[in-house]
Amino acid sequence: MDLTAQMQDFNFGGLSDRRNATRFPVKEEVRYKVLNSKGPSVTGIGKTLNIGSGGILFTTEGKLPLGRMVEISVNWPARLGGACPLKFVATGRVIRSEDTRAVMRIERYEFRTRGAASSEAKV
Fold this sequence. Notes:
Layout: H1 3-8, E1 23-24, E2 29-34, E3 43-52, E4 55-59, E5 69-80, E6 84-97, E7 101-113, H2 117-120
Antiparallel strand pairs: 1-3, 2-3, 2-5, 3-4, 4-7, 5-6, 6-7
């Protein structure tokens, strides 16, 4: 199966895909939080649809504001040393948004070890 060819055919919001980076169809739970938001805090849970070196397409509970900084946390499918569960935490700007999905351009990211279940509720 050629994932690169499949990803090149992806269309978001009627716009053709102009990216050169390969994206991978990683489908994992994502928690997101809009940062520095005036008014009520915007948080939610969704699923990643694909991840590439420059951005992430994920589902949302509502339309996210364009241009705003967002932080996401994804339970990563690979384990450190084959045993320690990881989470991928990234911040970046919302560059595309629809009612139930958004694209975030990754500006900063890190992998963290997953803690106890009580700390998982935080982004």
